[in-house]
């Protein structure tokens, strides 16, 4: 006889399973990423059919091995409002993509669910005031940096990858450069292997993204202009492609949306 378990988690992906069922990919605190069958969810008027990605769920599941089945679903919180803007939708989908790539099945990762909910809540809060697409970009970049760090692929922003010296950007010294070398990290000075160069302010901004909060001025405005945030996005994309050997398509979509916003306002 199958025992009933109760789990709480964030739905990451939902796809078809056979003719009438759905396959739910969910992130839980206890078991990491799990894949569960939702019987009959594709049938009209199914009581289990309302589940969608980016919902915080309370589930009752049955089964011992292989593919467990969902018997009850309660939505604790919906992040459906993220779909109001392409920027927040792309940012949230990028989080889901990166998690699925980095963390294997049934591999619990302490604090991952808590971290993801913090960033989703920040994206969701953008819809409660005058929308700022640049903040969505900043939250997306920081969320990826935090997920990478938790999964063992942290951007090495503390020391020069060539000399071992501390990476301390001399703010105001505009002749100083830092080179981003995708295979190695960040090096002081120019490098023939660099894909991107940064000035002191740009490096300092990137380093601040390792901290808990998105960096703002005292007047409430986001630190850094749009072109700098797009540069930081490129660094994160390149780091992921180099070390995880995968592309996050939602980050590409986010870049295109941000750039098209500029074109539409000109």
Description:
By secondary structure, this protein is α+β, with helices and mostly antiparallel strands. It folds into two domains: 4-78, Nucleic acid-binding proteins (OB fold (Dihydrolipoamide Acetyltransferase, E2P)), CATH 2.40.50; 81-155 and 210-265, no CATH class. 35% of the residues lie in helices and 22% in strands. Strands 1-2-3-5-4 form a five-stranded mixed β-barrel. Strands 7-6-8 form a three-stranded antiparallel sheet. Strand 2 (21-28) and strand 3 form a beta hairpin. Helix 2 packs antiparallel against helix 3 and helix 3 (133-150) packs antiparallel against helix 6 (249-265). It is elongated.
Q: Report mean pLDDT, rounded to a whole number.
A: 92
What kind of sheet is the major sheet?
Answer: 5 strands, mixed, barrel
Counted up, domains total 2
User: How far apart lie the N and C ends?
Assistant: 65 Å
Based on Cα principal axes, name the global outline: elongated
Give, in spatial order, the strands making up the sheet with the most strands: 1-2-3-5-4
Using the CA coordinates, give the radius of gyration.
21 Å
- Helicity range: 25-40%
| pLDDT < 50 runs, ≥5 residues | none
What is the number of helices? Answer: 6
N-to-C SSE string, H for helix and E for strand? EEEEEHHHEEEHHH
Strand content: 15-25%
Number of strands: 8
Q: SS-based structural class?
A: alpha+beta
Protein name: DNA repair protein RecO
Keywords: DNA damage, DNA recombination, DNA repair
Domain DNA replication/recombination mediator RecO N-terminal: 1-79
GO biological process, one term: double-strand break repair
């Amino acid at each position: 006889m199958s025992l009933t378990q109760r789990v709480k988690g964030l739905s990451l992906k939902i796809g078809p399973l056979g003719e009438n069922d759905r396959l739910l990919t969910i992130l839980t605190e206890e078991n990491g990423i799990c894949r569960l069958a939702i019987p009959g969810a594709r049938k009209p008027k199914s009581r289990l059919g309302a589940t969608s990605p980016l919902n915080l769920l309370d589930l009752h599941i049955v089964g011992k091995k292989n593919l467990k089945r969902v018997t009850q679903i309660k939505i604790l919180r919906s992040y459906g409002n993220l779909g109001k803007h392409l920027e927040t939708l792309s940012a949230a989908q990028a989080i889901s993509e990166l998690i699925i790539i980095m963390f294997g099945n049934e591999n619990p990762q302490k604090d991952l669910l808590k971290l993801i909910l913090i960033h989703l809540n920040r994206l969701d809060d953008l819809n409660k005031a005058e929308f700022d697409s640049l903040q969505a970009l900043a939250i997306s970049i920081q969320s990826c940096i935090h997920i990478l760090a938790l999964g063992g692929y942290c951007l090495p922003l503390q020391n020069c990858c060539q000399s071992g010296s501390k990476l301390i950007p001399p703010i105001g010294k505009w002749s100083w450069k830092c080179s981003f070398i995708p295979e190695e990290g960040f090096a002081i000075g120019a490098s023939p292997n660099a894909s991107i160069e940064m000035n002191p302010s740009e490096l300092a901004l990137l380093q601040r993204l390792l901290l808990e909060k998105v960096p703002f001025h005292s007047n409430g405005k986001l630190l850094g202009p749009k072109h700098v945030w797009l540069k930081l996005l490129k660094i994160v994309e390149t780091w992921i492609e180099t070390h995880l050997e995968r592309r996050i398509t939602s980050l590409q979509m986010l870049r295109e949306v941000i750039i098209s916003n500029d074109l539409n306002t000109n």
